[in-house]
Amino acid sequence: MKGIIFTEFLDLVEDTFGLEMVDQIISESELPSEGAYTAIGTYSFSEMLQLIQNLSKHTKIPVDDLLLTYGEHFFSVIETNYAGLLATYNDPIEMLSSIENHIHVEVQKIYPDAELPTFIVQEKTATTLIMVYKSNRAMHHFGLGLMNKTFEHFNSSAEIILEKIKDDGTEVKFIITKH
């Protein structure tokens, strides 16, 4: 998992819960990196999982809710650092349906060793999108947060239904209806 995911997560934790919380979740986790991350480094997903689980333990906020909030936060990173990529789209359905064939291709150019989830579009119209998320990491709520902010970015709204195909969250169907 790319370091930018870790650095931005810890920045969000610090901004929301304070530096003491960052220190606490790092010290309570067994991290080969010892919590020292660089944006371009690559780290084990197990480190992220430990950090999120420890944050959940201390804040009493469910892991999925933390991932949703983090996904929404991370969209601002995309807006700031990759505005040109966002500018190539005029519609949230178009953007979301191109995750696999365009956005992830661009991400791989920047981070060649990034391990990205797969998004399979099953159905697409002007107002609906059904796609399946597949990953060995159950971070679908992070994706949901990014989707929420995608619609907000385009001054639009949608109902997004998440259906777990696999109980562990490694395969999830998103049913999106644009309003």
Automatic annotation (TrEMBL):
Source species of the chain: Kordia periserrulae
Domain Heme NO-binding: 2-160
Name of this chain's protein: Heme-NO-binding protein
Database matches in InterPro entries: H-NOX_domain_sf, Heme_NO-bd, NO_sig/Golgi_transp_ligand-bd
Lineage: Bacteria, Pseudomonadati, Bacteroidota, Flavobacteriia, Flavobacteriales
Molecular function per GO: heme binding
Domain of life: Bacteria
Gene3D superfamilies in UniProt: H-NOX domain
